[in-house]
Every structure is written in structure tokens, then in C-alpha cells.
Amino acid sequence: MKYEIKEESGRAALVLREQMTYADRQAFDGLVPGLVRQGRPIVIDMAQLEYMDSAGLGMLLTLRDQAEKAHQKVSIRAAQGDVKELLRLSCFDTLFPFE
């Protein structure tokens, strides 16, 4: 997983690239506290994410749970192709607002 965190209109934008798999769990768990500590709404930009497995879904839920504890909103933006289909099949549109 490659990622970048950007400032975007008062929100933190987590831009994900390439793949998000179980192998990325440790790195993802390391970036969650920093995102939540910022105290801003978080948007996960998936426009450049080509593949995500079920562990990736779990990582998104971890981020959402930590953000909710801090009274922050998390949304998903621009999922494409197989990633979008995985999110749809997993009913993530009922768990996250989609932009």
C-alpha cells in the first residue's frame, strides 16, 4: 500500500494507491492514530487503489471505529473497478458515506 495524507478543505484526505492487503496492516495501524489525532473529518480517496482484500475492509473499519470514538466522520471517495465492487458487495455504503 502506498499512501499520502493531504490537507483538503478542513479535512484530512488519505489517498491510497496500488493495493491494500493484509501485508499492509501494520503500516495502516501506524497511521490511524495520527489521522485521528488531527481532529478533522477524514476522507479516504480510493481513485488510485487498484486492489483491496478482506483485510483492507477490516482496516477501514478500524479507522472508522477509532474516528467515531473521537467524534470524527470518515467518508470514502472515488472507489473504482474491483475495489468499488468489493465495497458494494460488503455493504460498506451503509457504514460509510460515499462521495
How many strands, what sense, and barrel or not for the largest sheet? 4 strands, mixed
Stretches where pLDDT falls below 50 for ≥5 residues?
A: none
Number of helices: 3
Basic shape = globular
SSE run: EEHEHEH
Secondary-structure-derived class: alpha/beta
Q: What do we call the CATH topology? A: Transcription Regulator spoIIAA
Radius of gyration: 12 Å
User: Which CATH class applies here?
Assistant: Alpha Beta
Count of the separate structural domains: 1
Average pLDDT for all residues = 96
The neighbouring-strand order within the major sheet is: 1-2-3-4
CATH H level, superfamily name: STAS domain
Total number of β-strand segments?
4
Query: What's the architecture in CATH terms?
Result: 2-Layer Sandwich
Strand content: 25-35%
What does this structure look like?
By secondary structure, this protein is of the alpha/beta class. The protein has a single domain (2-94), classed as Transcription Regulator spoIIAA (2-Layer Sandwich). The protein is built from three helices and four strands. It has helices spanning 25-37, 54-69, 81-89; strands spanning 2-8, 11-20, 42-52, 74-77. A four-stranded mixed β-sheet has the order 1-2-3-4. Strand 3, helix 2 (54-69) and strand 4 (74-77) form a beta-alpha-beta unit. Helix 1 (25-37) runs parallel beside helix 2 (54-69). The longest helix is centred in the middle third of the chain and has 16 residues, at 54-69. The relative contact order is 0.19.
